[in-house]
Amino acid sequence: MASRGRPRPGSLQVLAAVLLLAAASAAAAGSPGRPAPGPPLFLPLTRSYPNANRLAGSLRRGLGEGAHPNARMRLHDDLLTNGYYTTRLYIGTPPQEFALIVDSGSTVTYVPCASCEQCGNHQDPRFQPDLSSTYSPVKCNVDCTCDNDKNQCTYERQYAEMSSSSGVLGEDIVSFGRESELKPQRAVFGCENSETGDLFSQHADGIMGLGRGQLSIMDQLVDKGVISDSFSLCYGGMDVGGGAMVLGGMPSPSDMVFSRSDPVRSPYYNIELREIHVGGKALRVDPRVFDSKHGTVLDSGTTYAYLPEQAFVSFKDAVTSKVHSLKKIRGPDPNYKDICFAGAGRNVSQLHEVFPAVDMVFGNGQKLSLTPENYLFRHSKVDGAYCLGVFQNGKDPTTLLGGIIVRNTLVTYDRHNEKIGFWKTNCSELWERLHIGGASSPAPSSDTGSQADMSPAPAPSGLPEFDVGLITIDMSINVTYPNLKPHLHELSELIAKELEIDSRQL
Ligand SMILES: *[C@@H]1O[C@H](CO)[C@@H](O)[C@H](O)[C@H]1NC(C)=O
Ligand SMILES: *[C@@H]1O[C@H](CO)[C@@H](O)[C@H](O)[C@H]1NC(C)=O
Ligand SMILES: *[C@@H]1O[C@H](CO)[C@@H](O)[C@H](O)[C@H]1NC(C)=O
User: Fold this and answer.
1) Do residue 339 and residue 223 come from a single domain?
2) How far apart are the C-alpha atoms of 375 and 357, rounded to whole Å?
3) Residues contacting 382, CB < 8 A, separation 6+
4) What is the 477 CA–ligand 3 centroid distance (Å)?
5) pLDDT in tens, 358-406
6) Comparing C-alpha atoms, which of 268, 261, 263 is closest to residue 294?
7) What range(s) does the Peptidase A1 domain occupy (predicted)?
């Protein structure tokens, strides 16, 4: 969604575009049908040879974290000066570098194309397909919108804030930087031929789409079986910027709080927000207020937070009533009617002494406690003054939670288990806190029994070792094609190979 605008969220991208374009990825694996359960067959499995491949990968996906490498990437930029966080992605051979906004509300990754007719000036040179020996255009197919002149698939994204991006789809090797265990992978991305609005004027080159959709970088990597179906973001705090991102699974701290995230309820990453407490007291609003339209959506590409009218008024009144010792002043920009308070002091670590604690209570009763830096931004013109980073979502009844809400919070989008986890932490030192080393030095965890119950990161190469007590695989094949019968042995060899087990065990 990549929204930086203050008064109105850049809000949810046009859904039709998602649906129309969702199927353009050629690499999508179909979901296997469920066979009728028969009596289970128990076998001890012995591993044959390490041959990571697609089927084995997708089967291993269910075995939990640690079975796959992940992509550990640093985040740059910050909320107030840029309005977004970016990561570095490298596309092509030799690699061309890009700074992309990490956006859980977008479903495609795109960079300005050398041939772009309407692209702004960004921080890196445009992508030059001709300079990459591994680039290939995505040829027209039944699933995509086609540019008939070029016989190449196209994409288009429009955002409610009136910015847009369109171009052609290409495929190339994408690499995730030096700290990533995950090896470079082929992936489909957009090569932009036109940008408008914020996408034109921003410093960052483009968007890295982490949303739900077949063109999402997440879906592509998961479908290839190279990462497990989860990613995490950790945004730095007020005045700090930067942070960390992990594509793929990672161990969750034992005191992480979770909310269910129902992919059927909304195409966006939603959470079940039930109540907001200010200074320990629940806002007196109908809980259904957080479940209208798209419900409560978490969007890493939006800067601030936007509540439906009733909840916003109640929130603003509750915070204001708790800070009557502070002077209410005008915002830094006369174009916006920001609600700001002066006299709180410069030290962010002391803001909780003046501003109330805010808790978000989820459907399961679990509670995420926010600190003032999660709902305030620093007044750029008055020292020691802060403004509410929570706004009314116009007349839109959707609750939209952007980056400010999750500053200094590790957020795990656990797509596999349909839940989203939150853990307050100092994101500037996340790797150290989680005892995870970089790929070049796969520091085995020196587990010092911190509050988080961590397991060591998997070894960077080869198949990680893991002990399996018992695997039950229900498989039934109904052969009605008589000519297949003589090939049953061949078939079982193939299945054994894909499962990486000894064929005599099938
Ligand atoms: C900010 O406040 C914290 C906690 O009270 C304190 O430890 C720190 O020294 C303060 N920093 C500055 C720069 O005053
Ligand atoms: C977080 O960690 C960074 C880097 O170690 C440090 O500079 C910063 O003061 C820490 N922030 C807080 C709130 O402790
Ligand atoms: C196998 O498939 C055929 C044709 O679909 C069906 O009639 C038959 O009942 C199936 N047999 C079993 C054991 O499922």
Assistant:
1) no
2) 10
3) 329, 332, 340, 342
4) 10
5) 999 999 999 999 999 999 999 999 999 999 999 999 999 999 999 999 9
6) 268
7) 85-423
Tell me the CB-side half-sphere exposure of residue 419, using CA atoms within 13 A: 13
Q: Is residue 454 part of a domain?
A: no
Task: Find all residues with CB under 8 Å of 235, minimum gap 6, and list them.
Answer: 75, 79, 85, 243, 300, 403, 406, 407, 408, 409, 427
Q: Whose CA is nearest to atom 13 of ligand 1?
A: 347
Nearest-angstrom CA–CA distance, 270 and 273? 9
| 198 in the same domain as 306 | no
Residue 456 placed within a domain: no
Ligand 1 atom at minimal distance to the Cα of residue 348: 1
DSSP string covering 6-63: SSS---PPPHHHHHHHGGG-TTPPPPPPPPPP---------B------HHHHHHHGGG
Is the per-residue pLDDT at 18 higher than 50?
A: no
- Using the 8-state DSSP alphabet, how is residue 482 labeled? G
For the cut 90, the answer to whether the pLDDT of residue 443 exceeds it is no
Which atom of ligand 1 is nearest to 349's Cα?
Answer: 2
429-447: buried (b, 16+ CB within 10 Å) or exposed (e) per residue?
Answer: ebbebbbbbbbeeeeeeee
| Domain co-membership, 219 together with 278 | no
Instruction: Give the position of tokens 């107030």.
Output: 80
- Specify if 6 maps to a domain: no
| Ligand 3 pocket check for 476: Cβ under 6 Å | no
CB atoms within 10 A of CB 109: 24
Write out the two tokens for 449. 């029994």
Do 72 and 210 lie in a common domain? yes
**Looking at per-residue confidence, does 22 or 42 come out higher?**
42
Distance CA 442, CA 459 (A): 7
C-beta neighbour count of 493 within 10 angstroms: 13
Confidence at 71, pLDDT banded by 50, 70, 90: very high
**Whether the predicted pLDDT of 43 surpasses 70:** no
Q: Give domain status of residue 436, yes or no.
A: no
Same domain, 392 and 264: yes
| Boundary of a domain, candidates 213, 246, 279 | 246
Among the bound ligands, the one closest to the CA of 478: 3
